[in-house]
Amino acid sequence: MKVHRTGPETRRLQHRMLTVDDAGAFFALNSHPQVMRYTGEPRLTSLDEARQAIADYPDFDAVGYGRWGCVLKSTRSIIGFCGLKYLPELEAVDVGFRFLPEYWGRGLATEACTASVAFGFDTLRLDEIIALVLPQNAASIRVLEKVGMGRTGTIVYEGQRALRYAIGRPRPD
Fold first, then answer.
1. How many angstroms separate the CA atoms of 12 and 161, rounded?
2. Mean pLDDT, all residues of the chain
3. How many Cα atoms within 13 Å fall on the side-chain side of residue 71?
4. Cβ–Cβ < 8 Å for 24, 15
5. Res 173 pLDDT > 70
6. Closest by CA position to 31, among listed 136, 83, 101, 85
7. Residue 25: exposed, middle, or buried by beta-carbon count in 10 A (0-12, 13-18, 19+)?
8. Quick one: three-class SS letters along the chain?
9. C-alpha distances in angstroms, 24 versus 5, 21, 45, 87?
């Protein structure tokens, strides 16, 4: 199994696996109340917790891909994450993203998500990619729709009602 520690590169972003050296940026992101409002996950409470979360992240070793840190090329700063995650309980691959609020509204989530979906189809040869989003998260729903995903239903995931979006691999003409 090939492990994809780096992901797609876009005009403004580089995608790479986070390391414990990135704990400060990861903590800033995952402790921010606005960022975490619609994730269904608890906020991180310490830098040590951020380090541990990064160290314990199993996806790259387990399936060869995961959520990459998004590095803004112009500043070399990690401003969020985006990537693919295998959800064994759904037997599906999910695209997810999270960015610091000062980078919202600039098209960066759409840019990162588009690149991650393309990576899933072109490199991993996936047939379908899904996204789960809380119904009140209008901004993320807009990103998913811009990427070409369509709503396919509602599910209860990890105890919360979520909208399920999906996109299939493009068929050759």
1. 34
2. 96
3. 15
4. no
5. no
6. 101
7. buried
8. CCCCCEEEECCCEEEECCCHHHHHHHHHHHCCHHHHCCCCCCCCCCHHHHHHHHHCCCHHHHHCCCEEEEEECCCCEEEEEEEEEEECCCCEEEEEEEECHHHCCCCHHHHHHHHHHHHHHHCCCCCEEEEEECCCCHHHHHHHHHCCCEEEEEEEECCEEEEEEEEECCCCC
9. 20, 8, 12, 27
**Long-range Cβ pairs for the range 138-142 (8 Å, 24+):** 139/104, 140/38, 140/97, 140/109, 141/165
The number of angstroms, rounded, from the C-alpha of 12 to the middle of its chain's C-alpha atoms is 17
Residue type, 152: T
- Let me know: does 85 contact 93? Beta carbons within 8 Å: yes
Q: In whole angstroms, how far apart are CA 132 and each of 13, 145, 173?
A: 23, 12, 29
Task: Express each pLDDT in 26-64 by its tens digit.
Answer: 999 999 999 999 998 999 999 999 999 999 999 999 999
Please report where in the chains the tokens 């996204």 appear, as a residue: 131
